[in-house]
Amino acid sequence: MAISDEIERLAQLRDQGRLSDAEFQEAKAQLLSGASVDDHTSSANQIFGLSPKSWCMLMHFSQLLNCAPGAGMIAPVCMWVLSKDQSIEADRHGAVITNWVISSLIYSSVFGLLMFVVIGIPLMFALVIALVVFPIIGGVKASNGELWHYPMSIEFITVPGGDDEFTEEDSYF
After folding, report:
1. Whole-model pTM?
2. Domain parsing of the chain, residue ranges
3. From CA 124, how far away is CA 113, in angstroms rounded?
C-alpha cells in the first residue's frame, strides 16, 4: 500500500473517531519516517490486549468453564457484549456462540423432560459431548481466523457479515 493510501486510511480512522488526533499524528510521523504503521495500528485492533483471533478463541474456550454452574454460558456472552463494538470478528464469533448457548439450553430442557421416557438419556449424553467438543473445534478454527457455525445451532441472533474469513481490515479499529 502506498504511503498516501496509508495516510488516507489513517485520516478516515481519525474522522470516524477511531483514532485520536495525537494517535493520527504519531502514526503519520511513523509512516513518513519509514516505520510500519501496522505496528501502531495493530495495538488499536486489540481487544483487552489480545488480538481479535486470540480473543475469539478464548470466547469459544470460555464455554468450557461449566465446572462452575452457568459460567460456561455466561462468560462467552459477557465477553461478546464487551467486545462486539471493537471488532467485527468478535461480534460474529459472539453471535455464533450465543446462538449455540441458547440452542443448548433449549436442547437440555427438552432432553431433560425426555429422560422420564428414557429416550432423553442418550440424547443428553450426546449433548454433553457436544458441549465439550464444539467449543474446542470453534476455538481452534477461531485461532486460524475462521468462523465455525456450530452444528444443530438455531440462529436466534443474525451473524453479521457475509464470508467466514477475516482479514485485518475487518476490525472496527
Report:
1. 0.69
2. 3-44, 52-170
3. 10
